[in-house]
Amino acid sequence: MSNLRDSLAIQLHAESGSEPVEWAITDALVRYEEAVAFMEARAEAIAAGHAREMVWLLEHPPLYTAGTSADAGDLVDPDRFPVHQTGRGGQYTYHGPGQRVAYVMLDLKRRAPDLRRYVAALEAWIIATLNAFNVRGERREDRVGVWVRRPDKGETTEDKIAAIGIRVRRWATFHGISLNVEPDLSHFTGIVPCGVTEHGVTSLVDLGLPVTLPEVDAVMRMAFEEIFGPTLRVETPLLPGHAA
Q1: 118 part of the active site
Q2: Catalytic residue among 101, 191, 194, 213
Q3: What tens digit of pLDDT does each residue of 60-83 get?
């Protein structure tokens, strides 16, 4: 149990007097290019002190992203879905409907300018969210993300349920996490997810939990506030090229 207790104990609150983190949810599918353009601009404004921190929850249409460590050989089916090169850390990942993507734009200067601690806090956030659904998520020292043991598949089998990929510029963070709620798991077969061949992927629904995205969102917000501090619900971000 020490892994779970240690995960839930991590906190990364902002300095006293900081404004709440804006919390936005977009219901429609968001094109990846639009999301990245928004994050780039928002992170720049946060670093300059011109905008509040933000967490943006959304879904993408089916696509693959290649992080800065991506190996071309891990793109098994390059023609299946659009492939986006991205500046976040990590390797190949899949995004699509039924997966809750959370883009996290925080100012680490006001929290802790420590990337390892930030990644640990993101892992703790996911683990706390899963714990609320009686799912034991675990971190691994040799691979980023959150994992679930699958004794039903074999004594040593474990599957990945959430991915983490971040970028930091002037201590302002962007990109973030993706939690598998009810995506089409067959879509992951077009890549080697995060370069890991020894383990599979799973989701909350695959684990027998018929939960909805709104239910997961509510739990994610409570878990986030325990680790990162207060949030403030705001409207969906206005994306580049969209009229007000």
Answers
A1: no
A2: 194
A3: 999 999 988 888 888 999 999 999
